[in-house]
Specification:
Strand order of the largest sheet: 1-2
Radius of gyration: 16 Å
Shape: flat
Largest sheet: 2 strands, antiparallel
Helix content: 25-40%
Oligomer: single chain
Number of strands: 2
Distance between the termini: 21 Å
Order of helices and strands: EEHHH
Number of helices: 3
């Protein structure tokens, strides 16, 4: 659905990529693309490392938490 890139001001070696997907099937299809194969090759060539964290959107926010969210 989208990609967003962030670059820490104090670390020129790091890029934070946040990507959003409709579902797991969309991610699986993306991983099969020629572009992903190229990315894998570049990671190997330049010894690049990744850390992955998964987050899910929460559309059912409890009332006790809603006061902390400003839209």
């Amino acid at each position: 659905m989208k990609y967003e890139y962030f670059f820490p001001m104090d670390d020129s070696e790091t890029v934070l990529l946040i990507d959003s997907w409709e579902n797991q099937e969309a991610i699986d299809e993306h991983h099969k693309t020629p572009m992903m194969q190229k990315i894998i090759e570049l990671r190997e060539k330049y010894d690049l490392h990744m850390k992955i964290e998964r987050y899910r959107s929460d559309d059912d926010i409890p009332d006790r938490d809603k006061s902390f969210i400003r839209k």
